Amino acid sequence: VTLENELISWLQKNLPPSPRLLVGLGDDAAVLSGFDQSQLVVTTDLLTDQVDFVLDDVDPRQVGHKALAVNLSDLAAMAARPVAAFVSLVLPRSGCANRSAGELAVELYRGMLPLAERHGVTIAGGDTNSWNAPLAISITAIGETTPHGPLTRAGAQVGDQLLVTGKLGGSILGRHLEVEPRVDEALLLHERYELHAGIDISDGLALDTSRLAEASHVGTLLDLSAIPIAGAARELSKRDSTSALKHALTDGEDFELVLALPPNEATRLVRDQPLSIPLTIIGQIIAEPGLWQLNADGERAPLAATGYQHRGNE
Ligand SMILES: [Mg+2]
C-alpha cells in the first residue's frame, strides 16, 4: 500500500460529504456539478518549508490551515464563493520531527479540514509524493461568482474611497499562521454595496494598494492617520524600533481586504458597520498614478510602495 493510497482512504473517511462533488478522490479526475449560472474563479498557491514557514517551529496543522487559507483569501478578494480545493503535497521522505511522512500528511489535512468545512469547500483531489527535500504544499482552490459577478483589481474609479477590513501589521507575531480569510465578509459586502475593486493584503497594505491602483490605471492617496493599526504592530514596534504605522503599511500576510467604492457607498458602509470586524476608510482613488500620502498639513507626498517582495529564483 502506497502512502498516497493510505492517505486517500484516510481522507475518504474524514471528508465531509459534498453534494456537488459527483466524482471525488480515488478516480482519475474530479467531477463537480452546479456551475450553470456562475463563472469559475481559480487560484493557486505554493508554500514551501523554510520559505513560507519553518516546519520545525510550527504545528503542521497550522501549515495546513494556512495553505488553504491563503487560497481562500484570494477567492475572497475576487468576491467568489469557495467550492473545492485540490491539494498537492511533496513530503520530506523521512517525515519531520517525530512524525513519518504519512503522519505529517494527515496532520496537514487535520489543519485544513475545519477551515474547509466552515467555508463549504470540498477537497476534490490532489497528488501526494515524497522526496529528500523539505515539505512543499500546493493548493488550487476553485470558487464561483455570485450573481454580482467577480470583483477584480481593475475597476477603481477616480473619487472612490478606499476601505480596509480589520486591523493591520505585526502578523508575524502569530496572525500569519491563523489566517482567517475574509470570504463571508467579501460576499456580504459585494451583495449589499456597490464595490468597484478589491484585493487581499498578502504583501503589505502599501504594496497591495499600489497594485490595485496600477490595475485600475489610477493612483491612491492614503490618509496615514486613518490606518487601523493592529495591537501586534504596536507590540512589534516596541521590539524593533520600527513605527507601528510602518508595520501596518508594509508588513505582509494580513490577509485583510482593501476595497474601492463610490463615496456615498463608502459612507453608508462605514455607518452600517455590517461586519463583526471593523471597516475603515483609509484614503481615496485619485487620477495621478502612484501611491501618495496625505500629510497632517493636507499636502500630498509620495509614499514608497514597499512591502514583502517575493525573491523569485534566488
Ligand atoms: Mg491576492
Main sheet attributes: strand count, strand direction, barrel closure: 7 strands, mixed
Ligand set? magnesium ion
Strand content: 25-35%
Rg from Cα: 20 Å
Determine the structural class based on helices, strands and strand pairing.
Answer: alpha+beta
Any low-confidence stretches, pLDDT <50, length ≥5?
none
Number of strands: 13
What is the first-to-last residue Cα distance? 38 Å
* H and E order: HEEEHEHEEEHEHEHHEHEEE
Main sheet: which strands, in order across? 8-10-7-11-9-12-13
Work out the helix count.
8
Overall geometry = globular
Helix content: 25-40%
Overall mean pLDDT stands at 94
Which descriptors would you attach to this protein?
314 residues, alpha+beta, four-stranded mixed β-sheet, binds magnesium ion
Report on this structure.
With 314 residues, this protein is of the alpha+beta class. Helix content is 31%, strand content 26%. The strands form 3 sheets. It has a 7-stranded mixed β-sheet, with helices on both faces. Strands 3-6-4-5 form a 4-stranded mixed β-sheet. It has a two-stranded antiparallel sheet with strand order 1-2. It contains 8 helices and 13 strands. It binds magnesium ion. The site of magnesium ion has 4 residues, from α2.
